[in-house]
Amino acid sequence: xxxxxxEVMTSYYGNHLIDDIEAKIDIVDVISxxxxxxxxxxxxxxICPFHAEKTPSFSVSAEKNMFYCFGCHTGGNxxxxxxxxxxxxxxxxxxxxxxxxxxxxxxxxxxKDDKRARVFEINKKACEYYSQYLLGDRGKAGRDYxxxxxxxxxxxxxxxxxxxxxxxxxxxxxxxxxxxxxxDVVFSGLIKRNxxxxxxxxxxxxxxxxxxxxxxGEIIGFGxxxxxxSLPKYLNTAETDLFxxxxxxxxxxxxxxxxxxxxEAILVEGYMDCIKLHQSDIKNTVASLGTxxxxxQASLLLKYTENVLILYDGDxxxxxxxxxxxxxLSDKGFNIFIASLPDKMDPDDFLNRFGKEEFLGFIKNNxxxxxxxxxxxxxxxxxxxxxxxxxKIINLVKRDIQRLKSELDKDFHIKALARKLMVEENLxxxxxxxxxxxxxxEGILRKKTEIIRDNKxxxxxxxxxxxxxxxxxxxxxxxxxxxxxxxxxxxxxELAIIADYYDKLPGEVISRQNELKIWATENNLDGILAxxxxxxxxxxxDKFQINSFIQDTKRKNRELxxxxxFERLDELNIHGDxxxxxSFILNLDTxxxxxxxxxxx
Length: 601
Prior knowledge:
The chain is of the alpha+beta class.
């Protein structure tokens, strides 16, 4: 049985406030700030801001207060749109739209959220303290360092850079004076407790401080770099409720709009690399917080672009990290390119030595696909290839080639691979076909996307989707389907989860639908619900079709039941378990009667 993911969630602010905001703001006005919309019939259409396309497949319905892209399947309400556009959570989206609507937010106090709010405030005060210290009389060593690295005063301000004092407890004393408790400052990860001495000390001492911001611009943690050669060279805020390295990207807040506009992100390794590229007006740059690039970071980046240029250090370690980043990005369907800098150089070194124009020219002339990079990396390790090596390389890049969206790109890389390995091209083609027909596996979503985009009547909706739309619009249909075949017949678990939740809601259709939209947004099901919602009022199914579906489902259930019965009989017979075989046969009639009365297994 499909189950609802997690508990039924209640909005932090209450559904009446959500209703107030939606009553005062038009979703078309909200989305028009980002997307150029054209009215066609009762809907508005435009180029989707969440994936690259030439033909508009992004639709907005003012009547339904929903949007949906028939290309990338992103959808939801106005809160979903703000969440996806700005990279914020549901609560933050409510705050943004409430401010726009002039709706006052009244929240019930919650201990966990209060504590998080205090940590945000502590981080903000700590950032101010580090910044003032850098610019003050005792901050000369930090200022000298940034001068040597050619970091401008504007970059220091834009990235809120600072300096932590050398003393043990300067920040701790400062924060306590500001009214924070020792429990809160320890919880923030900036202060530690010395249990033996019953005292407290600063985590960051005599370090250049790099505040780490989330996509909304709130400070969630810090990175600190030593001024001398002591170790560790870099130190990050410990993992907290607010901060997890694997889930965040340095420079995203400053660069997200430039990433969206250019439809490409440049991925670098370090804080300084990111800052210096921004300073050179290459602002679509983010850094991976000194850790191996993760699947969570790839998901975060996917909110802004599908295209990434990896620009890691030119040393051996940088090349290894590039391969790891390729795997994380490839799993999410990114278009990936790599520009390998000269050995032992990072982007900051290159910019300092050669300047912006030379830097951009180098990237343009040396940018290669991630597949070419993988092949080249392997060839460096094994310049003399035997048959086993060639098979390894083919397997190494097989999935990457299969995931390419363009048949021309696939053909180009297969030709290049054949040429570099000095094997027949048709042998590689044959290898790919025997591997499992990637078009039927990883490419299936893309094929469905193309069909939907080309079909002006959206006829590619599945029968199950049409049934769910009918259920969500008519409580009589919900009751009929539920009593006849239950709500577990959906092949797609998300559809079953939505139907199950909707069934448990009190009230009439409109109130249920409104509650469902909020719940779907909180549970990341808003895209699927938006797709279904766009069927409302279209009369895709009549009573005959619904009855036919119910009868077909009953027939399939009976066939499945008898299949299981015969399998069980064969199993008991083969093992000679005659006592259980007899018991099973005697109880079979009761079992079948129960099944037929319920209309389902």
